[in-house]
């Protein structure tokens, strides 16, 4: 796409977009106008954000992070926020043919006209889509080539905890919770504009970097040792801090978003109203980046949860409510939350769900409570590792007996289908650890048949390939080779299917290990990986999170070409174990976790030693609370949902009088 020499007009492009719609698949995803969407007067606002989850509309629209920021920003009368998503190949081709730039769904304005282009990455596999969006927007791909009028390209989301592979393409990155920092950035942009944009684009980036809460990659230089490892990453100008800290929102009750989420025009992956019931997790599963980087635990109160559910249903008309978090059953008052919500919506069409469940019988009571209205989907538990030994390595404190007790309670309560989630390729894993999944699953079926007295019960085993992630104890681990993962999964499949007694009762779902290698490259890569991403994109790489679009062969071919002469390759970034002294590409980005604590936890993993959850035991000094000046916040508060009145079919839910004020 042509790089524009001046800022594009913010006027709507819809007249140019509309003729293209009849010629593309699912055109409704490009028209906007969803219930609760906002179109503001451009000239009446000071700071304008374009927000993107760089995937297709059906994946991007339900993204909770974008939904929250969209509301938080638009609630300020001086800020305007619109959304854009990745367009499918047919639309991309037509946009290029007709010179239509990447546009927002709300005002159909060109993305290049905004002050800030904020992208949220839940996964690294969205990086090539970011390049398509930039290119279609007419924004130079490389930050160094951008001009004064180009938006500041800002990355957030979990993948931003190591943004080095995309350092060439972004102007800045933020770590952690976005609500407060998005407003703080807006203030900085407003002031800088009001002052006549002193020192241009770099002047603005310098103000953001100097705050210590925004990472600006161009203000840091990376040196390498002759063997390819990083010698150091350091600021290249004064006033820029050595480390950049993550943001932690401490009072979830004061930020009850989303209040009015968008109701999709086209089919999306989730059509439910989701309330985050707490953030953070301290269970300490060593593979889990989300758990590590979102510490400490901060609960939303039962009152705010109740008022958000009521208001959210009313604002959207949605009938499914998800109580979200990394481990929802761990909320200190989850029993009361489930019981009181089930009471309130008894006899209505509102269904409640708890997407993530831990392995214990308490969850069966919860599931029974939440499915009072009669809807029973399968129950999912995540033992993650097949053998007890491996579960000690990954700090998943679940025994075989715990699992058998839990599924026994589930089948005895009338559930016919249980799903179990495991990972393959974990550190220290052997064939025996993976084959233990077959034995465990057969015990599950035997137990189910015995307690239910029926033959028609099922267990689905779902297996994902493990990818070591930054800011976890496994950040130093060697990733298991794709061939080894595939071989173990094949053996497991045979072990399950050869036994005719169980073959029909056990479903088996897994992906091959290859996408995991690319994810591993992008997760733990450094700035040299940027050239691989660009080469893949130039070769046609798009929508890498979709198996039908992902090409392992393309990634490997492009990596070989792009990394030629650097002395490093895909294996160097993925299957190589790091030692304690190696400078990691994300060491200057502070998630609050103490590096030495992470290393000790890695050594504990190798020694198969477990660490307790600090919610119930004394602090074990992971570093987050003192480092970030935060603390664990949890109940029980002993409060109730108000009012407790039951909602009858056809009547609107009444929000509780409690709940948080807007800002
Ligand atoms: S600093 Fe202590 S209390 Fe805070 S999350 Fe870490 S282990 Fe838990």
UniProtKB/TrEMBL annotation:
Task: Specify the protein name.
Answer: Radical SAM family uncharacterized protein
InterPro entries tied to this protein: CHP03960_rSAM (IPR023862), Elp3/MiaA/NifB-like_rSAM (IPR006638), Radical_SAM_N2 (IPR045784), rSAM (IPR007197), rSAM_horseshoe (IPR023404), rSAM_sf (IPR058240)
> Which GO MF terms are attached to this record?
catalytic activity; iron-sulfur cluster binding
Organism of this sequence = Microlunatus flavus
What the entry lists under PANTHER family is as follows: RADICAL SAM DOMAIN PROTEIN (PTHR42731:SF1), SLL1084 PROTEIN (PTHR42731)
Pfam families (UniProt xref): Radical_SAM, Radical_SAM_N2
The cross-references to CDD domains, in alphabetical order and at most eight, read: Radical_SAM (cd01335)
> Which SUPFAM superfamilies did the record assign?
Radical SAM enzymes
Q: Where is the Radical SAM core domain?
A: 267-509
The source's superkingdom equals Bacteria
């Amino acid at each position: 796409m042509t790089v524009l020499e001046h800022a594009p007009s913010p006027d709507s492009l819809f007249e140019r977009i509309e003729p293209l719609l009849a010629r593309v698949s699912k055109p409704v995803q490009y028209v906007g106008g969803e219930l609760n969407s906002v179109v503001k007067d451009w000239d009446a606002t000071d700071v304008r954000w374009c927000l993107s989850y760089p995937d297709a509309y059906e994946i991007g629209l339900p993204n909770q992070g974008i939904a929250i920021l969209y509301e938080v920003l638009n609630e300020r009368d001086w800020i305007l926020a619109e959304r854009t998503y990745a367009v499918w190949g047919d639309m991309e081709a037509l946009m290029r043919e007709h010179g239509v730039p990447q546009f927002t769904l709300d005002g159909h304005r060109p993305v290049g006209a905004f002050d800030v282009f904020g992208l949220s990455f839940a996964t690294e596999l969205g990086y090539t889509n970011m390049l398509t969006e930039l290119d279609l927007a007419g924004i130079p791909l490389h930050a160094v080539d951008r001009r004064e009028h180009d938006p500041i390209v800002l990355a957030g989301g979990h993948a931003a905890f190591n943004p080095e592979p995309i350092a060439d393409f972004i102007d800045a990155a933020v770590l952690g919770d976005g609500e407060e920092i998005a407003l703080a950035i807006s203030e900085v942009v407003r002031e800088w504009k009001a002052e006549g944009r002193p020192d241009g684009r770099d002047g603005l980036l310098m103000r953001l970097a100097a705050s210590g809460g925004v990472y600006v990659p161009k203000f840091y230089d990376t040196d390498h040792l002759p063997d390819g490892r990083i010698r150091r990453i350091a600021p290249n100008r004064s006033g820029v801090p050595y480390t950049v800290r993550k943001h932690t929102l401490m009072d979830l009750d004061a930020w009850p978003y989303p209040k009015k989420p968008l109701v999709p025009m086209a089919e999306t992956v989730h059509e439910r109203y989701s309330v985050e019931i707490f953030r953070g997790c301290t269970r300490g599963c060593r593979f889990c980046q989300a758990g590590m980087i979102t510490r400490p635990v901060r609960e939303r109160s039962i009152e705010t949860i109740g008022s958000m559910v009521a208001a959210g249903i009313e604002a959207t008309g949605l009938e499914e409510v998800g109580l979200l978090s990394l481990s929802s059953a761990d909320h200190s008052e989850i029993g009361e939350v489930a019981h009181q919500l089930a009471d309130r919506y008894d006899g209505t069409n509102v269904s409640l769900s708890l997407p993530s469940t831990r392995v214990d019988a308490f969850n069966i009571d919860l599931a029974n409570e939440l499915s009072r209205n009669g809807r029973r989907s399968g129950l999912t538990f995540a033992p993650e590792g097949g053998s007890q030994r491996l579960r000690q390595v990954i700090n998943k404190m679940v025994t075989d007996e715990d699992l058998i007790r839990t599924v026994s309670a589930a089948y005895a309560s009338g559930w016919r289908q249980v799903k179990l989630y495991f990972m393959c390729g974990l550190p220290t894993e052997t064939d025996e650890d993976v084959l233990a999944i077959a034995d465990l699953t057969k015990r599950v079926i035997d137990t189910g048949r015995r307690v239910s007295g029926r033959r028609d019960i099922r267990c689905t085993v779902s297996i994902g390939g493990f990818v070591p992630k930054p800011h976890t104890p496994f950040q130093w681990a060697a990733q298991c080779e794709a061939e080894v993962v595939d071989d173990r999964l094949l053996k497991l499949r045979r072990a399950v299917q050869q036994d005719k007694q169980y073959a029909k009762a056990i479903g088996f779902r897994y992906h091959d290990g290859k996408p995991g290698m690319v994810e591993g490259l992008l997760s733990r890569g450094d700035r040299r990986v940027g050239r691989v991403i660009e080469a893949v994109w130039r070769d046609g790489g798009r929508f890498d999170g979709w198996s039908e679009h992902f090409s392992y062969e393309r990634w490997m071919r492009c990596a070989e070409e792009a990394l030629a002469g650097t002395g490093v390759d895909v294996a160097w970034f993925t299957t190589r174990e790091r030692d304690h002294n190696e400078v990691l590409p994300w060491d200057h980005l502070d998630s609050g976790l103490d590096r030495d604590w992470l290393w000790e936890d890695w050594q504990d993993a190798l020694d198969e030693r477990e660490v307790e959850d600090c919610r119930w035991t004394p602090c074990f000094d992971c570093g987050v609370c003192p480092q970030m000046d935060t603390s664990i916040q949890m109940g029980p508060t002993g409060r109730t949902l108000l009012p407790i009145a039951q909602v009858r079919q056809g009547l609107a839910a009444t929000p509780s009088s409690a709940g948080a004020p807007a800002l």
